[in-house]
Structures are given as C-alpha cells and as structure tokens.
Amino acid sequence: MRMYDVIEKKRDGKELEYEEISFFIKNYCEEKIPDYQVSALLMAIFLNGMSERETAELTEIMANSGDVIDLSVIDGIKVDKHSTGGVGDKTTLILGPIVAACGIPVAKMSGRGLGHTGGTIDKLESIPGFKTALTKQEFIDQVMKIGISIAGQTGNLAPADKKLYALRDVTATVNSLPLIASSIMSKKIACGADRIVLDVKTGSGALMKTVEKSVELARTMVKIGNDLGRKTVAVVTDMDIPLGNAIGNSLEVIEAIETLKGNGPKDLEEVSLALAAKMLELAEIGDKENCKNRVREVIDNRKALNKLAELIESQGGNPDVIENYDLFKKAKYVYELTSGQDCYIERVKTDSLGVAAMILGAGRETKESIIDYSAGIKLNKKTGMSIKKGELIATLYTNDSERINAALETLKSSLVLSQSLEPQRPLIISSID
Ligand code: URA
Q1: Could you tell me the strand order of the sheet in which 343-348 lies?
Q2: Domain topology for 330-418
Q3: Of 120, 168, 169, 174, best ligand 1 pocket probe by most atoms within 8 Å of the beta carbon
Q4: What is the pLDDT of residues 104-130, one digit of tens each?
Q5: What angle, 0 to 180 degrees and rounded to 10, lies between the N-to-C axes of helices 404-414 and 350-360?
Q6: Model confidence over 226-281: pLDDT tens digits?
Q7: Residue 13 burial class via C-beta count within 10 angstroms: exposed 0-12, middle 13-18, buried 19 and up
Q8: Which residues fall within 8 angstroms of residue 177, CB to CB, at 6 or more apart?
C-alpha cells in the first residue's frame, strides 16, 4: 500500500477502507510516513469529510495505538464524562465527588487547558500539594480504595491522536467534525470506562459555535461510542456564557467547593448536577428522578464535599483548603472593573473572556507557557444582568502587573452592552441518548 494512493482516494471524495486507515495511522506513529503526506490527507479529510464507518474505524484504530486502560478489576459500572471544553467549566470537580459519593466508581483521566479553555488537571494542581501524575496502578488502586481518582492522561494514551492533533493545529485542520469526534472518542475509549457522558459545548466560547454543528458533533460521538460497545449519551450545553463566575484555576476550585457546599452559582449547579444525574442513570442506580434525588442528597448531607476532601488528601493535596481558602496562593495584584453607565450585558464573547484570563496568567498561550494558578477573573455581572453606573462588573487577579492593561482591554471588548435585554436561551440545549 502507498500513502500517495490513500491521499488520492480521499482527495477524490472516496471512502477509505479499514486497512487504509490502519496503514496510515500505524506507519505515521512509526514515523514511516512524513508529516507532509499526513497533512495532505488531513486536508482531504477536512474538505471531503468521512463517513460514519470511517470515523468509527479511525477512532478505534487511534484508541488502540497506545495504552488502553483496563478498569475491569474495579467492581461496578464505570462511567466517564467528557466536556468539549469551554471557559469556567469546572464541572468535573463537582460531579466527580458527587458520583463517587453515590457509590459509583470514578476513574477519570483529564487534560490540561490550552488557549482560551481551561483544563481540569491545571485546576487540581492549584491545590497545594495535589499530584496528578499517577501510575496506572496508583490510579486504579485509589479508585478501589476511595472510589475516585482524577489523573493526567498517561503519556502513551492514544499517541496517534497526540501526533495528529499537533499536526492539525498547524495545518488549519482542527475544525473538522470527523477529526474532532475521533480525537475525543479515541481518548475516551482508551480510558477504559464502560459508559460515557459527553458535554458538548456550543457558542462563542466553544469549539463549535452553532447549535446545529454541536448537535451534529454530539450525535457523531454518541454513535461512535455505541458502535464501539460503550453506551454513550450527550448533552449540548451553552458556552455563549462562561459557566459560573470564576475563570482561573484556584478561583475555579474555590467555586467548585462552594457549589458542593450548596452555595454555588445557579448555572454551574444546574449543569453539574444534570451531568452527575446522567452519569448515575448510565450506572443504572435508578430512574431519572431517583438519580436527581441522589445527587441532591449527597450535596445536602455533605458526602460529596467529604469525598472531594478524601480525593485531595489521597492525591497528596491539603484537604484543609475546603474550609480555608487562604491556603491557596493569592495573587499580588487585584483590579476591579466597574461600569461607567447604567446598562445591560446583552452578550459576552466568551472566547475573548477566556483570552483575558489567559493574559492574566490563568491559561497557556503555547504548550510551554507556565500557569499562574492564582490568576484569573471573577465575574460579578454576566449576560442578561442589569448594571448600575459605578457597580462592579469583574475582578481581575494576577501576579504580573504589566498584564493588567491588556487583559482589561480584552475583557472590556468581550462585553456587549446594551440598553435593553434579549431573552436568554436555556443552559441545557439538547440531549442525545
Ligand atoms: N479536543 C480534542 O481532544 N480533540 C479535538 O480535536 C478537539 C478538542
């Protein structure tokens, strides 16, 4: 088989066979096919798409290109959750302890943030002492002992995706539905869970900007999961507005803790609890209403909060952060943005808001950037709210005073102000079961 022929076939809009997909993935991983040929194939896929069969096969082949975690030693149905990424999305920190407190094992491998989106692993590392690099054995042992573990992905999980993603990033081929779906699902399949809940974000802060595209991505991933024997469901949720009020690592951990104490922002609580209930439903602990009640119960009796403390302690962190937020590193510089007029926030360009937090030090511009865990933004006002002249809109936190002006300008440009209000769309836009 020749790579030239595979490229030519896809260029001409034909379907690739399993053997052809397998040939290019295997040989690319073994560095027997150069980047320029794979780039050409990626562009042909970007332009001509892939059928459902091709996408499912690409996913399976990428999932098997490295380590596949075997969770079968852990009793019970293992349910994973994945978010396609957004701004202020700290749901894993909330739903992980909730689900574990309900007796369902949570063996979760998460990623880091890049660009305007955050990552669970960075957030957890803002907890003093918290260790996210666990061996496979430590990861599994901890789930068996306390029912939950959240770790960084092992280096050899779906290595084909790692190579392809890096190439897509520099060849303008990231935004392709079959490539996104196979990239995400290959890692989920390799993580070993029996069932998967997907949170597909939609809007200005998301990978997919329109509901139609987001629903299409959700449907594609649900089909791949089910075809590969992992029962998968998805919800499409709004990312035209940041989730919760905090953006930035330790700020988000504190907001997640507050949510587990029952004091979190309503939007964050709604999405986190809905996803947790879906995970319980997939784990077959009861019907929809039952699962919702169980979720509420472990928040009210503080079992979920205690489970978070157990998780932190077990992974080397200081569990006292739960009651004492002063244990988190504090930013040296704090700046308050107030309003110069009476108005409404009609819309927030959520991706720009994420960029403003990144400029303050909360995110990575490149893979090598060092994160400032205490940096970020706390919103006092969001879409759909009225503001009086002089009222606080947001507080900015950083350790580098030179970053404040640029972040402030970006933050201001992300707010679309008006004199009247449009009705807001619901947070949970669609469910695909
Ligand atoms: N996240 C992934 O893991 N892969 C993509 O292609 C896009 C988002």
Answers
A1: 386-387, 343-348, 415-418
A2: Aldehyde Oxidoreductase; domain 3 (3.90.1170)
A3: 174
A4: 999 999 988 877 788 999 999 999 999
A5: 170
A6: 999 999 999 999 999 999 999 999 999 999 999 999 999 999 999 999 999 999 99
A7: exposed
A8: 49, 213, 216, 217, 220
- Which ligand 1 atom is at minimum distance from the Cα of 183? 4
Contacts of 12 (CB under 8 A, 6+ apart): none
151 CA to centre of ligand 1 in angstroms: 18
Residue with tokens 């964050």: 268
Single-letter amino acid, residue 309: A
Q: What are the sequence ranges of the domains in the chain?
A: 3-49, 79-322, 330-418
Question: 406 C-alpha vs ligand 1 centroid, how far in Å?
Answer: 28
Amino acid (1-letter code) at residue 87:
V
Contacts of 276 (CB under 8 A, 6+ apart): 94, 95, 98, 99, 295
Indicate the fold that domain 3-49 takes in CATH: 1.20.970
User: pTM of the entire structure?
Assistant: 0.94
Task: Give me the pLDDT at residue 77, please.
Answer: 96
In the CATH scheme, what architecture does the domain 79-322 have?
3-Layer(aba) Sandwich (3.40)
**What is the C-alpha separation between 274 and 279, in angstroms, rounded?**
9
